From TrEMBL:
Compartments (UniProt record): Cell membrane
Protein name: Phosphatidate cytidylyltransferase
A GO cellular component entry from the record: plasma membrane
Residues annotated as transmembrane: 38-67, 79-97, 103-121, 133-157, 163-183, 204-223, 229-248
Length: 293
């Protein structure tokens, strides 16, 4: 998810008639705003009128994101056992409903074991597996990266004021993204990690912190009736984990030599390109709110 970015060079080539003009930060801004608004409205309606439907929304999202990532890995020659990974991801999400964190962690362990065995024999009992260690390591990385981290978003909705807790997460991430985008485009001059994500700037990071802290303080106090200092901590954690999540996906895409994980969402890329900062932020928000509220 692009945030706190350095403006693109003025020497960049003009877009062709077939390609919509991108913003200074490299987005097709009208498409990005339209898609983001539609997704946000859908989340609001679910959380207000049917909070437990959120579990199904997350389950569908991680299935699509996992498919996108495994497809890209397959194109790079990495043999990830897609079927047990997809089914295991669903188990991680849905077993958290009746059994809480224990169910999710148990399903993750089971998924890891099944994937290791599947990769061992996916070419038959007589064949010798190739790149077994690499492929299983990447598989476990994907299982932890997508369904395990996403499961904390579903654990939150089952808690007291669960819908409100998810609102704190979503609004905080949106505020961080908006603050980083605005500050990065207007003031971004000093790249933060140019070898991984050259458009990210320290000025944008500052904008993310300001917006995320303000948004989190307001949501924690007004929605959850919590201490404002909890909101400050949530805002800081959301920016740190969101930035880390964004950088992780950027490095994965660099390793795979691709620009986006998919093309499902105009202006954003694939669904995974939208979830990159949300996944670690879900865990951070769950941890802070569970410990302090």
């Amino acid at each position: 998810m692009p945030a706190h970015e350095v403006p693109a060079s003025a020497a960049s080539p003009e877009p062709t008639p077939e390609q919509p003009a991108a913003s200074k930060a490299g987005r097709n801004l009208p498409a990005a705003i339209g898609v983001g608004s539609a997704l946000g409205l859908g989340v609001i309606l679910v959380l207000v009128y049917a909070p437990m439907v959120w579990v199904g929304v997350v389950a569908a999202a991680i299935a699509i994101a996992t498919w996108e990532v495994t497809k890209r890995l397959g194109e790079a020659g990495i043999a990830v056992p897609r079927i047990p990974l997809l089914l295991g991801g669903q188990a991680i999400i849905w077993l958290g409903w009746p059994y809480g964190a224990t169910g999710g962690l148990g399903a993750f362990a089971g998924t890891a074991l099944v994937c290791m065995v599947w990769r061992l024999f996916d070419h038959g009992l007589a064949a010798t597996p190739r790149n077994y260690l690499r492929d299983t390591a990447v598989t476990l990385f994907v299982a932890a990266w997508i369904p395990l981290l996403a499961s904390f978003a579903t654990l939150m909705v089952q808690q007291e004021d669960g819908a409100g807790r998810v609102f704190v997460l979503m609004i905080g991430v949106v505020c961080s993204d908006i603050g980083g985008y605005v500050a990065g485009v207007l003031f971004g001059k000093h790249p933060m990690v140019p070898r991984i994500s050259p458009k990210k700037s320290w000025e944008g990071l500052g904008g993310s912190l300001v917006f995320a802290i303000i948004g989190s303080v307001l949501t924690v106090t007004l929605i959850l009736d919590g201490n404002p200092w909890v909101g400050v901590l949530v805002g800081i954690m959301l920016v740190l984990t969101g930035t880390i999540g964004d950088l992780i996906e950027s490095q994965v895409k660099r390793d795979l030599k691709i620009k986006d994980m998919g093309t499902l969402l105009p202006g954003h890329g694939g669904l995974m390109d939208r979830l990159d900062s949300l996944l670690p932020s879900a865990f951070a928000t769950w941890l802070v709110l569970t410990a302090l509220l």
